[in-house]
Task: structure prediction
Amino acid sequence: MKTNEATYARPGGARVLDAPYVVTDINASLSQLMNEEGWEQTDCNGITLFKTDNLTSVLICMHTGSRIGENSIDGTVTIHVIEGEVELTADEEVVTLHTGQMVMLHQEVTHSLLATEETVMLLTNHVCC
Result:
């Protein structure tokens, strides 16, 4: 079992990251993120919900106008917009993702995100063995 310990910035952050199964309360995690200093002081805040050698799921909150700069990831990526709206730029095309929409990206696709509204999304990265 893999765990994450509480930190100064996230005193309520002790949690299981990997076990035979991990149940996550998205609403509780979201409330935690939005009540942390990091949310008040930065453009975005995120918390890893699940992490193995091959799969990572991160809940991310973004303020309006915040960006996740151009990058590419080793592995397949899904971005599920739980609430809000983001502009995804991938391979020089811009796609707007709204609440309830999801995009899947193959590995090494260069992409960036711009929150056009306050946004909550779940990013999952799957790296093949």
User: Anything to note?
Assistant: The longest strand covers residues 44-51. The helical segments are 26-34, 37-41.
